[in-house]
Amino acid sequence: MLQAIVFDFDGLILDTETHEFQTFQDLFREHGAELPLEEWSRVVGSSDSDFDPYAYLERCVGKRLDREALKEKCRKRHLASIEGEKALPGVEDVLKQAQALGWKIGLASSSVRDWVEGHLESLGLRHYFECIRTREDVQRTKPDPSLYLQAAECLGVHPSEAVAVEDSPNGALAAKRAGMACIVVPNSVTAQFSFGSVDLRLSSLEELKLADWASGR
Asked: PANTHER family from the xrefs (predicted)?
């Protein structure tokens, strides 16, 4: 019987991922290059990917670039692009549904804690989460299951008693490896990716009725 729900953050609660991909696409085009989505897919939902977009850009243009300057440019552009963004549709409603069911609520993110907690506070959603696990808490991030296993332990439930809500293949794989059920809600970038075996796929969290879905499992 399900007793908990664990959310991803980037691309699910706040759509940082679409803006980040656009930021890097713009950078590549400024250098006369293109960033293929299939290459970018390797980094979405993970901080342990072996894909380095700056190294890839250097290979595309055939010369060394000032990576630190490019990183700072992308960081500033990305922050500016998400300024004022609101939580994605349906997020708070699903959080309230989980509360009404008496479920424990957690979050597992490959991002750093300050990034996640800062945005949750700005969105007015931090109070919903009993437990948050981020990059600092594990040796390896998604698709490794450690973040989800730690979130379940923190919430005091067995992984089989929790459902993860994800937007990326790396995140969904991490949840399934941890032994959780997994609902995926891809964003405009990850909707084009191939997902493995998941329990439910939706186009928006607005479609999710937790009680109905849980009773029909």
From this structure: 2-DEOXYGLUCOSE-6-PHOSPHATE PHOSPHATASE 2, PSEUDOURIDINE-5'-PHOSPHATASE
Task: Express each pLDDT in 46-77 by its tens digit.
Answer: 666 678 999 999 999 999 999 999 999 998 99
Q: Which of 10, 15, 144, 167 is catalytic?
A: 10
Classify the C-alpha dihedral 123-91-100-164 as positive or negative.
Answer: negative
Task: Count Cα neighbours of 192 within 13 Å in the Cβ-side half-sphere.
Answer: 11
Q: Which among 8, 15, 144, 167 is annotated as catalytic? A: 8
Q: Residue 31: helix, strand or coil by DSSP?
A: coil
Only one residue has tokens 């800062």, namely 118
pLDDT, one tens digit per residue, over 71-86 is 999 989 988 888 888 9
| 187, 12 Cβ separation under 8 angstroms | yes
Helix (H) or strand (E) holding 68: helix 67-82
Q: What are phi and psi of 161, to 5 degrees?
A: -95, 10
> Where exactly are the structural domains of the chain?
4-15+87-215, 16-82
- Do residues 194 and 173 lie in contact, with contact meaning Cβ atoms separated by under 8 Å? no
* 167 among known catalytic residues: no
Catalytic site residue 50?
Answer: no
pTM, two decimal places: 0.86
**What does the block give as tokens for 36?**
């293929």
Return the H-helix or E-strand segment holding 107. Answer: strand 104-108
